[in-house]
Amino acid sequence: MKKTLFLLMAVIAIPAFGQTKQDTLEIRQAALDYVEGWATGDVARIQGAVSPELSKRRVAAAGELVYVQDMSRSLLCASAMGNAQGVRMQDFTPGQDLKQEIRILDIDGINASAKTWNEKYGFFDYIHLTKASGKWMIVNVLWDMNTK
Q1: What is the largest CA-CA distance in the chain?
Q2: CA atoms of 103 and 116, how far apart (whole Å)
Q3: Is 4 helix (H, G, I), strand (E, B) or coil?
Q4: Neighbour-count burial of 6, counting CB atoms closer than 10 A to its CB (0-12 exposed, 13-18 middle, 19+ buried)
């Protein structure tokens, strides 16, 4: 009887804490909305994918001085607005559409980690997401230029 009860409880608990296909789709969509929203100047798309408390960073150096460049959601949106007329970065694949690659690295309950990168503008993002009020949103980003 105890074994049966234990197995029943285990089967009931698995769906409550496991990753679902829907989670995977929503994480991928949040990542696409973040990068494609930036590239096209679609601020509403960014705001739907990114937490109001976003912390986006890049580590850079000037000689011996190492520093961190910070960006908030509002600054990201302001930057994206300028891209509505065309991205002002080097285009490594002229004439081709932006193709965003996304790899989900981990999902643990309501938290996830993913990597996005593209050849067109030559950058990648490590993103952390959380699911709050039933919606996946990006809360942290560490980005840099591709080394390839």
Answers
A1: 69
A2: 6
A3: helix
A4: exposed
Please give the Cα distance from 81 to 46 (Å, whole number): 11
Token couple for 104 = 């989900």
Q: For residue 55, give the nearest of 36, 77, 70, 43 by alpha carbon.
A: 70
Q: How far apart are CA 6 and CA 21, in angstroms?
A: 26
Length of the chain: 148
C-alpha to C-alpha distance for 67 and 59, rounded to whole angstroms:
6
Query: 79, 72, 80, 75: which is closest to 33 by C-alpha?
Result: 80
Model confidence at 79: pLDDT above 70: yes
The beta strands (E) that lie in the chain are given as 50-62, 65-71, 101-108, 111-117, 123-132, 135-145
pTM: 0.83
Give the tens place of pLDDT for each residue, 63-78: 999 999 999 999 999 9
Q: How far is CA 52 from CA 60, 69, 98, in A?
A: 24, 18, 25
Catalogue all structural domains in the chain, each as residue range(s) with its CATH number: 19-145 (3.10.450.50)
Q: Which residue has the tokens 């309501």?
A: 110
What are the backbone angles phi and psi of residue 120, rounded to the nearest 5°? -55, -50
pLDDT attached to residue 131 = 97
